[in-house]
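Late entry, written up from scratch paper. The run itself happened at the end of the previous shift, but nothing got recorded in the book at the time, so transcribing now.
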Amino acid sequence: MSELTTAARPYARAIFEMADGAGNLTEWSDSLDFMSVVASNGAVKELLSTPTMAKHSGADAFIKLCDGKLGDAEKNLVNLLSENDRLSLLPEICVLFKALKDESEGSVEALVSSAKKLTKAEEDEISKALKKRLGRDVKLKVSVDESLLGGAIIRAGDLVIDGSLKGRLSKLTSTMVN
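Output as recorded:
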């Protein structure tokens, strides 16, 4: 996964700088979301990974699949990525772009995976604690992962807090083995 991030980072930074300079960060964020969904589709991945698909044919096919929802700048990005065999990076470019956008806006996205559905009060408490710790506004994205058995795992930027029962059991097991 880090190889994808490394390859996607220069594209995300260039798009961010261009969008920030033009004052259309939100529009680019929405476009990248859309293109990311298209690029993540299994059938599209398979089509674009076909060796017989010429570089321009891949870009043309991708643009046609987007059904007129891309502007000229987005089409240029698709062509550039296709020429460099990088269309598969669109989902990672989108993630990195959003992180840069959030950073410029003084906020951070926190992913919370919990063993059970969190109440609004619990979400507010987590958000408040993270804002205090990180010194930024926090946007929570909450999901349920019953395999955690109990507790939650919080990821915000480089920060990972594993307060799950599964994580604690894993630490206990490794401590007992060593």
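The helical segments are 2-22, 25-40, 42-49, 55-65, 72-83, 90-104, 120-134, 165-177.
(Scratch paper discarded after transcription.)
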